[in-house]
Amino acid sequence: MKYFQRSAILTSILLFSAALAPAVAEQSSGPSTNVAWTIETLNLLRSGDPERGAMLNTKLECVTCHGDNGVSTNDTWPSLSGQTAGYTFKVLRDYREHKLSGTQRGELMAYIVAEMSDQDMADIASYYAQYTLPPARIASVQEAAETLDLLGDPTRLIPPCSVCHGNKGQGSFPDFPALAGQSPEFLMRSMMDFKAGFRGNDVYSRMRLIAGTLTEEEIESLADYFAGKGIAVAQE
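-> structure tokens emitted (236 positions)
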């Protein structure tokens, strides 16, 4: 029963987002992403070789920003440890195709990944996905954030965060990112980029619509909330 309830909620989100997508699309040119989850793309993702991904990680010096084994110690950059392979692959493709050029890291990452093939991206995504989520950070969890995560806010058409990002912030297939254990600063900046429209690589404008409805206080509260989750849920 719970599965059907969650599926119904997700279907409602997608229908609502698709209905508003034309209006949002008028403000930008081209599709928000060129990644389509076709059989070919899924097979490519499954072919990801973590050992080759480890070599690419060393070659590209990813550790400089994303830390050892993908656990970042710099709040400007996200941790990649335990991130879903589909999300990492999608974002790398979006960087290469300049779909994130409006963000702080957009141009730098576009330069770094410019020569990467799709197979390279699948391999490095597989490499980071094999690790656990980053450690939970000490955070002050407010009841309002937990309510948004578990229940959303139907009065504002805000779905529960858990529908897409997992019941413990661990992410879900194919391209919903893990949020658990990220720094509050990174999470706040990402949500504010969506809210302001600087970041527009979300399919059907899902996050732009949601973040645009959230208050800055709610964004800050949610950032603390998800930062307080982490390694304990990585293998659940």
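Residues 100 and 153 are 28 Å apart (CA to CA).
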